[in-house]
């Protein structure tokens, strides 16, 4: 169920990895399901999730999300020991995983999580095939962002 141009409505977004857009050139986007425990779903509904430091690895032909923090709620996880930094399995079609493995083995490509969102009552993760940015590319991104802000400020002042 992947889509190279998947766009999710803003109201279904759970968490977003804005750092990924700054640190990487995004080549392709995919949508993957996430294997979660019950307490994790409840914590996600409460907004206790962070994917900024997350990344995706391939082990034995399967994808895993590492570094995604889901902080347990005190009231839900009383009978089990909740691990906030647990490795979570991502679900995709085997052909898509094989294609991603071929791309990741190329020099410079990596898989990064972009966001977590709700789709039909299930938690999905948008992952991206990305290439790391050089330091000068990051500086260019900052310059562009500041230039856009200055133009918006000037337009706002002009309209007053």
Could you characterize the architecture of this molecule?
The structure is a single chain. A 7-stranded antiparallel beta sheet has the order 1-8-9-2-7-5-4. Strands 3-6 form a two-stranded antiparallel sheet. The chain has one domain (13-132): Small protein B (Small Protein B, Chain: A, Beta Barrel), CATH 2.40.280. With 160 residues, the chain is of the alpha+beta class. It is globular. The protein contains 4 helices and 9 strands. It has helices spanning 18-23, 38-45, 94-104, 135-159, and strands at residues 13-16, 24-34, 49-50, 55-59, 62-66, 69-70, 88-91, 109-119, 122-132. GO terms for molecular function: RNA binding. One of its GO terms (biological process) is trans-translation. One of its GO terms (cellular component) is cytosol. It holds the Pfam family SmpB. It is found in: Cytoplasm.
**Largest sheet, order of strands side by side?**
1-8-9-2-7-5-4
Taking the alpha carbons of the first and last residues, their distance comes to: 48 Å
The figure for the number of domains is 1
Question: What's the Cα radius of gyration?
Answer: 18 Å
Number of helices: 4
The percentage helix is 25-40%
CATH topology: Small Protein B, Chain: A
Specify the CATH class: Mainly Beta
Order of helices and strands: EHEHEEEEEHEEH
- Overall, the morphology is globular
Family: Belongs to the SmpB family.
GO molecular function: RNA binding
InterPro entries: SmpB (IPR023620), SsrA-bd_prot (IPR000037), SsrA-bd_prot_CS (IPR020081)
Main location: cytoplasm
